[in-house]
Write a structure and sequence with these properties.
The complex is a heterodimer of chains A (395) and B (160).
Chain A: H1 2-6, H2 8-18, H3 25-62, H4 78-88, H5 99-116, H6 134-155, H7 159-190, H8 195-200, E1 205-206, E2 210-211, H9 218-234, H10 246-249, H11 259-284, H12 300-321, H13 327-354, H14 359-379
Antiparallel strand pairs in A: 1-2
Helix pairs in contact in A: 3-11, 3-12, 4-11, 5-6, 5-11, 6-7, 7-9, 7-13, 9-11, 9-13, 11-12, 13-14
Chain B: H1 2-22, H2 26-46, H3 50-75, H4 87-106, H5 122-131, H6 134-155
The chains are: A mainly alpha (395), B mainly alpha (160).
Chain lengths: 395, 160
């Protein structure tokens, strides 16, 4: 029974494809891909709508107010109202904007965000597109976002847009390094770039009850935190949301966008967030595996979305809790702390592997990370260095 | 199906390359150059070289294209100006193209039938890189590190 519920989507797709029996192979292939794409879009656009209302609800709760509660029961239909509003708003394109580039930027940014969702295993046999270098595909697609942000900034022909795009790109490039390097230890230990293999490697339990997820090893936990913080920056979330700022650069590269194009940017940001938390779940939190053996009867996709939801909740929680950082603080943090720590994770994972992947390896890798962390925190300690503020002006 | 895909991708890549060479605005040219990179990546995918295709997207669109647009943005004052037409560039391009075509048709090793290639996985590439080609790999790593340090020295504040 539980197996059939677990595989309900797989058998559903097989049933849909059985209608096409007898047609040539390529037609079935295309139909199969289309079903995957529609399922992905349906799930994640619904999740986007749900997330946008839940985020406002939870933020309201954190800030001691109600949040949206007028449209539908508990304000649940708020995203519908927002969507209609965005659709009927006038689409304004500045006269001096580069029309084509201005139009293509939101298209490209949404396309790349959605593409990245395609390689994540959402459950047992539920990977939409199995690619041999799936992890690499994720980052290859993600790196295209920078060009899209640049197109938005430059195509708008507005100084605020351009400066905002510069900020966004600078922080995206800086944090892409720790993001990619924190994935390396997992890839090293598993010996594969395929997300399915990485999830399969996290099956089973140590001592019969601790799941073999990478987050329970010292290097995995460190890499997970670094990955999570880099993910926050990549999706421009608080406390790293400096590409936007009403009092400084308006809405950054989105300043000159209105109506549905602005909504597309908004959607791409959220879908990028889902993709990066999905990848974090896959890499470090055991993907769709259950945390306890007794709970394995619950379908695998439920576990995946529970973990995804938990991570997304932390995103919202951080937004409601932390103030924003400054641009220079973000950059310094990336190059002086995140990057060395990411390299330490690689070394710690190698130590863990060569010390036998057992308790000894666990302790040794903890030692490596503790040494690196202490050394970095001593070197980067700025507490005593506060001097009267000096100003430098352009000559 | 593969040959149809080849023709479609080929036309798109060539059109983007032509646009990159002829568009009057420099920034448009740079962006169509990025489309050309994407077309080349698609060719790699078509040939079954997934890894190379993905690296092509990662490095050339994610890094090189961004580098190009930033270089244009930071070095030119007159991005909007029409850049004219460079005839010497046409001559050089035709010369390079002719040379390549001549070399390709002269090569003996291409005359045979293409051998059946095993499916190339990332694992194989990694193993080969770490065994047979470990010295070239280390040299490239050293070169890139040197470049990184050089860039740091360039932007370092001069202490008075």
């Amino acid at each position: 029974m539980s197996v059939s519920i677990d595989q309900i989507f797989v058998s559903g797709k097989r049933w849909l494809l059985s209608w096409l029996a007898g047609t040539p192979d390529w037609a079935i292939q295309i139909a199969s891909s289309l079903i995957n794409i529609f399922a992905l879009l349906a799930v994640f656009l619904t999740l986007f709508a749900l997330m946008s209302v839940l985020e406002r609800k939870i933020l309201g709760r954190i800030q001691n107010r109600y949040g949206p509660n007028r449209v539908g029961p508990f304000g649940l239909l708020q995203p519908v109202a927002d969507g209609i509003k965005m659709l009927v708003k006038e689409d304004i394109v500045p006269v001096r904007a580069d029309k084509i580039v201005h139009f293509l930027a939101p298209v490209l940014i949404a396309a790349t965000a959605i593409l990245a969702l395609g390689i994540i295993p959402y459950g047992r046999n539920l990977t939409p597109f199995t690619i041999d270098g799936g992890i690499l595909f994720f980052f290859a697609v993600g790196s295209t976002t920078e060009l899209a942000v640049f197109m938005a900034g430059w195509g708008s022909n507005n100084k605020f847009s351009m400066l905002g795009a510069m900020r966004a790109i600078a922080q995206m490039i800086s944090y892409e390094l720790p993001l990619v390097i924190t994935v390396l230890p997992v890839v090293m230990i598993v010996g594969s770039l395929t997300p399915d293999t990485i999830v399969a490697a996290q099956d089973d339990y140590v001592f019969g009850f601790v799941p073999r997820w990478f987050v329970f090893t010292p290097w995995g936990a460190t890499a997970f935190i670094l990955f999570f913080v880099s993910g926050l920056v990549e999706s421009n979330r608080t406390p790293f949301d400096v590409p936007e700022g009403e009092s400084e650069i308006v809405a950054g590269h989105m300043t000159e966008y209105s109506g549905f194009k602005y909504a597309t940017f908004f959607m791409a940001e959220y879908i990028g967030m889902f993709a990066i938390t999905g990848l974090a779940t896959t890499l470090f939190l055991g993907g769709w595996h259950a945390p306890v053996r007794a709970l394995e009867f619950i379908p695998s996709y439920v576990w995946f979305f529970v973990k995804l939801g938990a991570l997304l909740f932390v995103y919202i929680w951080l937004r409601g809790t932390l103030p924003r950082t400054r641009v220079d603080q973000i950059m310094n943090f990336a190059w002086k702390f995140m990057l060395p720590m990411a390299f330490t994770c690689v070394i710690a994972a190698a130590v863990w592997h060569y010390a036998g992947r057992g308790l000894r390896g666990w302790l040794w890798s903890l030692v490596v990370i503790a040494i690196a962390y202490t050394a970095l925190s001593i070197v980067l300690d700025t507490r005593r260095k506060f001097a009267p503020r000096t100003y430098r002006f352009a000559e | 199906m593969n040959s149809a895909a080849f023709i479609v991708i080929g036309i798109l890549t060539l059109a983007a390359a032509l646009a990159a060479a002829t568009l009057p605005k420099l920034m448009h040219a740079a962006l169509s150059f990025a489309v050309t990179f994407l077309g080349i990546a698609a060719f790699f995918f078509l040939l079954g070289a997934e890894f190379v295709g993905l690296v092509q997207v990662f490095v050339y669109i994610g890094a090189v294209a961004v580098l190009i647009v930033f270089t244009i943005l930071l070095t030119r004052r007159d991005i909007e100006k029409d850049r004219g037409f460079n005839w010497s560039g046409v001559v050089v391009a035709i010369a390079v193209f002719g040379g390549l075509i001549w070399a390709i048709f002269k090569t003996q090793s291409l005359s045979g039938v293409a051998p059946e290639m095993p499916v190339l996985t990332v694992k194989h590439i990694g193993e080969v890189l770490m065994s047979g080609y470990v010295w070239p790999l280390l040299c490239v790593g050293l070169l890139l590190t040197a470049a990184l340090i050089g860039a740091l020295i360039l932007v370092m504040e001069e202490r008075k």
